[in-house]
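User: Hey, my collaborator sent me this sequence without any context and asked if I could get a structure. I don't really work with proteins. Can you help?
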Amino acid sequence: MEGAVKSFDAECKVWRAIRHRNLVKVITTCSSPDVRALVLQYMSNGSLEKWLYSHNYCLSIMQRVSMLIDIASALEYHHHGQAEAAVHCDVKPGNIVLDEDMVAHVADFGLAKILEENKEETQTRTIGTLGYVAPEYGSAGKVSTKGDVYSFGIMLLEITARKKPTDEMFAGEVTLRQWIHEAVPDYVLEVVVAGLLSIEEGRDMNATESIIMSIFETGLRCSEVVAEDRMDIKDVVPKLKKIKSAQQH
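Assistant: No problem. I've predicted the 3D structure and written it out in structure-token form, which is a compact way to encode the shape of the chain:
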């Protein structure tokens, strides 16, 4: 019970500092000896995970890029927009929610950690979601902003390829990242482009391939095994905006 209270208090501390359009707002908190809860802003379009994997929903390639920019912008704010950096620790499609305009918002800071000023990492015994956890986080409990970048990179690959990192095809030592890294631009690109063109009639195949390759490159750079080799989230945002802008002209 004591651990749950500390977790709730930590989550509240993160949420109270929120001042960004791509982070779900807290309306109020409810606290009693038996119940501790946050009342959050309503998101009418539900989770990104629902939109990725339900047969009743579909997302265009440009919608996906826009959502990735939204998510990266929220993480950039948490990593660099405050005196003390906040690390989400559980970045995944299930923790991304969409408002009525299909703008993406990062939610669920139940595992979040706040880094002391001028401190780059901390330790934790709490592990995030299998498939998205950075190697150093899963093996040694090292929490840093680079861990969020890794999770974002995996999610970026997932959103584009529409394949969960825990999909049954990724058995043994084969991972989503390896599948994309080793098979692109052949089989994976063919599968992804075919899936996107089936919901976007009239879109140019070459333009779609160009977008996907650029996104995959960014995702692979974000999800490098060695933390120091990963992109900083503040460099990811302009990269994604450039990809989007190039396809609008």
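In plain terms: The chain has a mean pLDDT of 84. You can pass these tokens on to your collaborator as they are.
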